[in-house]
Amino acid sequence: MDEEIGCPDPPSWIYQEDFDRTLMDILIYGLINSVALALMALGFALVYGISRVPNFAHGALYVVCGFITWSLLCTLRLNYLVSILMAMAITGVIGALIYQFVLIRVRGMAISEIIASYAVGLAILEALRWGGFKGMTYTLPVFVEGSISIMDIPVDLHRVVAVGIGGAVVAFLWLFTHHTKMGLALRGMAQDERAALMLGIDSDIMALVAMTFGSVLAGLAAVVLLPLGNIVVEAGYNVLILAISVCIVGGLGSWMGAVLAAFIIGFAQILTVVYWGAHFQMVVALLAIILTLILRPSGLFGRQKELEERV
Amino acid sequence: MSRQPILEVQDVTKAFGGILALNRVSFEVHEGEILGIIGPNGSGKTTLINCITGFIKMTSGRVFFRGKDITGKAAHKIADMGVTRTFQIMRPYYSLPAYKNLVIPLFSPRAKRTGGWRGGGKLGDRNTVGIDILEEIGFERDSFVPYKIASTLPTGYLKRLELARCLALRPEIIMCDEVFSGLSMSEIASMVPLIERLQMDGITVIMIEHRLRELFQVTNRVMVLNFGEKLMEGTPEEVMTDGKVQEAYFGSQKVEEVMTYA
Amino acid sequence: MAEDRRKERLDRGIKVRTDGIYALMSKRELAYLTLPRLVLIVGMLILPLVLPSMYWQRVISIVCLYALLALSFDFLAHFVGLVSLGGAFFIGVGGYLAAILNTTFGLPPLLTIPVATVLGATICTLLLFPCLPLRGVYFAIVTLMYPLVMGRIIEALDILGGTDGIMGVESFANPWVEQYFVISMVLVFLFGVRRLVNLDIGLVLRAVMDNDQAVRASGMSITRYKAVAVWVASCMGCLAGACLVHIYMWAGISLFALDFSILPIAATVIGGGGTLVGPVLGCFILVPISELLRAFGTLRIAFYAIILVAFIVLRSEGLMVYGRRKYHQFERWVQV
Fold first, then answer.
1. Min Cα–Cα distance to chain A from B15, Å
2. pLDDT band at A6, cuts 50/70/90?
3. Which of A113, A263, B225, C156 could form a cystine bridge with B39, CB 3.0-4.6 A?
4. Is C323 exposed, middle or buried (0-12, 13-18, 19+ CB in 10 A)?
5. Which of residues 32-61 of C touch B (CB under 8 A)?
6. pLDDT of residue A3
7. CB contact under 8 A, B87 and C204
8. A309 and chain B: CB distance < 8 Å anywhere?
9. In B, which residues are within 8 Å of A306 by CB distance?
10. Which residue has the higher pLDDT, A138 or C77?
11. Which residue of C lies nearest to A111 if distances are taken between CA atoms?
């Protein structure tokens, strides 16, 4: 089962060591898990935040990128870095195609967008399950072999690299949306689509750009996180659930909210793993959604304060 | 006669992010009177209705209905108590015939309790009660008008339909959001007796209006809002001759000059 | 000027005469109204007689169960405005409940099915309650998630039989009872829901869908009416689930499979949303095809998904909507 992306089974000695060690373990692996969740969620958050399109094919794009990377690497024997970059680019193109041929026709009708993108994602995932993955397990090699010791806790170097990449992505996003023309335009659209339209920003092109970016991010998350486990189709559904949970808890449309929510859910998951068992992780995600909807439906930083329609 | 006001609004404030749509607005309404609320566009009149009736959560302030604190209650609960409102952007059930539009409010708990407008007893068949209400409100009974699909009705009828939907609940207060807007002079002329009839039936009416001349025909107490703040309240003469009000509406032109062109 | 004609659609005379408040004047008008319904009822009732082989018996039963799900989807989506992306949730809850009632408490199918239906509907409504006051989008998201997560929970906690499921569930007394029961359930709910949406409460539900601010302004709680609608829809789903476990004599995680979520949506889109009959018809088309596609494994889900996308993107109206239009109206070209 591929639920433990970024979150390994806790080593059996964790319950025998003294409290300090346990705390450190939780902190470190909590951080890793949180960054992993943030990576998974940012693609979805980006697309929704900018164009209000809920891209329920997000999970499918994640798996597709992993699969393409594997194919390029193992079947065509290309260089790993080249495979990764090409796969991410192809995933971006697939996302753009999904928008251009399917989502654009149902633009504005929220429910139809969900159904259409979900159906596309399903078609991709189930087609992959049938035609793509047969027989042996598929894995991607880690970026860097070996592990280091942080505060006496062994951590795979790849996980360290993953955290680094995650942090870099968040920083890059922040800089991009605050300091470049394109980024500011995207933010403008996120805040007020009609005003942006009046300023001459074409909403369809922005949505296309957002969808492409979001798909590339999904692909990035895949290439960073999949080496920690196997490439299985189930991961597509898991990623979708986790991404939606993070975005709802953080507030649909808020990127910083998504990052914060990723940490909340990430640490909640680690604590659950430590104290209850590894299989409760999805339950935590679902509980997080339900709790958010009951207590504070707009999420942590949600901009939609009035979730019922405006009068 | 120092009776408790039927509606007390205290220091209602509503901020949308950095913008103060309403700033400590307070006023009282006594049972059976008609209060007019006027002010230039954007002064927060509709926001005020939304806050009082629970469609928007106010940032601070309190609202009391018959002494009971209704601040923050859900919109449907406030309507259930008898504080009803119409919508400035009309919201009839467009695909239904006019009389079916009334079936829905007649389905509400309040209508069941009170028997609907002029009901008194058991509610009876909602379709016929709906037609009765429409007749009260000015739809000609023997014509086909009550049976027309709402989307085909002209604005005058739709405004009446909005009021009818409130009446189906046997309300204690109706807050009318610009019922005269979009109507021709003759349509307004026929609406005025309707408003007066509401008052005669014991309903307290609060009217947000732009059509000052017609408003002053039905009421003698008016409150002025500007940029979310209450400027003053008083009789129409007091209000129209007040310098601040004139400045809010017209810059510094005189009211009489403008009224001659209206 | 290339095209100076346009298509004009007029209601047929007989429809105008028989529509709304009317008095039937002739046998022909009576037939116009009742014939389609009779064809449907009679057709469904004689189906088990016409196709008696064991294979078709199973298919007919499964078609009817999917029809119940599709009915519940259509009702919620087009008459209340709530899109349920997880019909499997109802199947699973109803199914597991029936299985437990039967194996642990020893109740016969005659009792487990009604109890599982009502109790299951209540449980489902409670679990869906948090998203009812919110916009429809949240209902879609939550219904999508529940079946995906439920399966994982059962597997992880190894409760309710875990991956093996609950075995040894009683079956129906005999195949005829099984088939006629589910067929009659479909007919009952089809005509029942149609009746419901024409009652006053149906109007309120449609009002909730179109114009919920006005409903709130009339002193009615939107959440409560949505809950009622969800309860009714879950009844249909849980009923289907309960019947399913008695047919297969087994309850397992596959009750939460994507088939049960996606096929009803595809059937509704093909058959025509908002007609209630259309989704049932869509099931009659899709389920036999899906049985044929069993060899391809989960690819059939991709198949439904692609059909779904095609219909949505092409904005096709669906078979029954098209059929209804043809039956009630005629078209002709007129000069502009």
1. 12
2. very low
3. B225
4. middle
5. none
6. 33
7. no
8. no
9. 56
10. C77
11. C137
Q: What percent of chain C has pLDDT over 70?
A: 96
Could you tell me the residue ranges of all domains in chain B?
1-73+173-182+203-262, 83-171
Same fold, B1-73+173-182+203-262 and B83-171: yes
**Structural domains of chain A, with CATH:** 12-295 (1.10.3470)
Query: Is residue C98 one of the residues assigned to a domain?
Result: yes
pLDDT band for position C146 (cuts 50, 70, 90) = very high
A295 — contact with chain B (CB < 8 Å)? Answer: no
Please tell me which residue of chain C has the smallest CA distance to A105: C313
Top pLDDT among B98 and C3 is at B98
Asked which of A137-151, A166-180, C60-74 is least confident by mean pLDDT, the reply is A137-151
Q: In whole angstroms, what is the distance from residue B85 CA to residue B171 CA? A: 10
The pLDDT of residue B105 is above 80? yes
Chain C residues touching chain A at CB-CB below 8 Å: 77, 83, 85, 130-131, 133-138, 140-142, 144-146, 148-149, 152-153, 155-157, 212-213, 258, 262, 265, 296-299, 301-302, 305-306, 308-309, 312-313, 315
Is the pLDDT score of B206 beyond 70?
A: yes
User: What is the tens place of the pLDDT at every residue in C26-61?
Assistant: 777 777 777 888 888 888 888 888 878 888 888 899
Residue C71's φ and ψ, nearest 5 degrees, are -60, -45
User: What is d(CA C254, CA B94) in angstroms, rounded to the nearest whole number?
Assistant: 44
pTM of the model: 0.86
Q: Which residues of A touch B18 (CB under 8 A)?
A: none
Q: How far is CA B168 from the centre of its chain?
A: 15
Q: Which chains touch C (3 or more CB pairs under 8 A)?
A: A, B
Contact B162, B87 (CB under 8 A): yes
Any domain includes C44? no
Q: What domain range includes position C134? A: 53-257
Of B72, B37, B68, B75, nearest in space to B53 by CA: B75
User: Which residue, among C78, C205, C218, would best test binding to B if mutated, counting the most B CBs under 10 Å from its CB?
Assistant: C218
Instruction: Provide, rounded to the nearest whole percent, the portion of chain B with pLDDT above 90.
Output: 24
Give A309's pLDDT tier (boundaries 50, 70, 90). Answer: very low
Q: A206-234, pLDDT tens digit by residue?
A: 889 889 999 999 999 999 888 887 788 88
The residue-averaged pLDDT of B200-209 equals 90
Amino acid (one-letter) located at B45: K
Higher pLDDT, A164 or A157: A164
Interface test with A, best of C213, C301, C307, C314 (most A CBs within 10 A): C301
Mean pLDDT taken over chain C: 86
CB-based burial label for C168 (10 Å; 0-12, 13-18, 19+)? exposed
Using a CB-CB cut-off of 8 Å, the residues of chain A touching C77 are 111
**Which of B83, B109, B81 minimizes the C-alpha distance to B29?**
B83
Q: Is residue C317 part of a domain?
A: no
pLDDT of the residue at B254: 60
pLDDT score, position C212: 84
Strands B173-177 and B204-208: parallel
Spatial separation of the C-alpha atoms in residues A65 and A216, rounded to whole Å? 9
Amino acid identity of C47?
Answer: L
Residue A16 has pLDDT above 50, yes or no: no
Q: Which of A83, A39, A44 is nearest to A65 (CA)?
A: A83
The answer to whether residue C272 is domain-embedded is no
B87: contact with A, CB 8 A cutoff: yes
For C223, name the nearest residue in chain B, comparing CA atoms only.
B76
- Per DSSP, the residues of C143-190 read HHHHHHHHHHHHHHHT-TTTTT-EE-----SSHHHHHHHHHHHHHHHH
CATH architecture, range B1-73+173-182+203-262:
3-Layer(aba) Sandwich (3.40)
Domain B83-171 in CATH 3.30.1250.10 = no
**Number of folded domains that form chain C:** 1
Question: How close, in Å, is residue A236 to chain B by CA atoms?
Answer: 38
Neighboring chains of A (3 or more beta-carbon pairs < 8 A) = B, C
